Amino acid sequence: MRKMRTVRADDEPRRDNAHGVDVRKLYDTEHAQVMHITLRPGESLKKHITPVDVFFYVLEGEGQVEIGEEVRTVSKDTLIDSPARIPHRLTNNGTKDFRFLVVKVPRPSEKAKMAEDVAGKKN
Questions:
Q1: C-alpha to C-alpha distance for 80 and 54, rounded to whole angstroms
Q2: What is the 3-state secondary structure (H, E, C) of the chain?
Q3: Which domains does the chain have, with CATH numbers?
Q4: How far apart are the first and last CA of the chain?
Q5: Which of 9, 34, 75, 112 is the one with CA 20 to 30 A from 60?
Q6: pLDDT for res 1
Q7: pLDDT at 35
Q8: Ranges under pLDDT 70 in the chain
């Protein structure tokens, strides 16, 4: 029988990533993956494409989310649905930290691709 497991984001190590921001893995099974991301003022994820559906849940702060051609400002307690294979990014244009969860379902079997790399291959 599996035992209960608890995870505190602050206790997890920061993971190296292509975006150069604070990313911490909270959950990782064959069924789903959950990351905790903190964007400091002025930081942004690079526009990228994930091979699976993703949703973001804003924990703190305010930021801008871009999915495909749509751009919206989002804040605490907002869930954002991002379909697979659509370029997306989140940006902190504010003066306070912007913290959110990234949930990938199912857990991806291939890595996300930077949108600029995909666009370059089409040309």
A1: 9
A2: CCCCCCCCHHHCCCCCCCCCCEEEEEEECCCCEEEEEEECCCCECCCEECCCEEEEEEEECEEEEEECCEEEEEECCCEEEECCCCCEEEECCCCCCEEEEEEEECCCCCCCEEHHHHHHHHC
A3: 12-112 (2.60.120.10)
A4: 53
A5: 112
A6: 83
A7: 97
A8: 117-123
Q: Is the whole model's pTM more than 0.85, yes or no? A: yes
Burial 70-98 (b: 16+ CB within 10 A, else e): eeeebeeebebebeeeebbbbbbebeebb
pLDDT (0 to 100) of residue 9: 96
Distance, CA of 91 to CA of 119 (rounded, Å): 21
Q: What pLDDT, on a 0 to 100 scale, did the predictor assign at position 119?
A: 56
Residue 80 to residue 28: CA distance in whole angstroms: 20
Question: How high is the pLDDT of residue 67?
Answer: 98
- 93, 63 in Cβ contact below 8 A? yes
Strand pairing class (98-105; 53-60): antiparallel
